[in-house]
Amino acid sequence: MKAAFFKIIIVLFGLFIFFSCSSYQKLLKSDDFDAKYQKAVEYYQDKDFFRASSLFQQVQNVYRGNEKAEKIDYYYAYCTYYQGDILMAAYYFDKFKQTYPLSQHNEECEFMSAYCLFEYSPSPTLDQTYTNKAISHFQLFLTHYPESEKKDSVNHLIQRLTEKLQTKEYNDSKLYFKLGNYNSAVVALNNVLRDYPDTKNREEILFLILKSHFLYAENSVQKKKRERYQSTIESYLLLIDQFPETKYLKEARRIYKQSSNFVKQS
Question: pTM for the full model?
Answer without folding.
Answer: 0.83
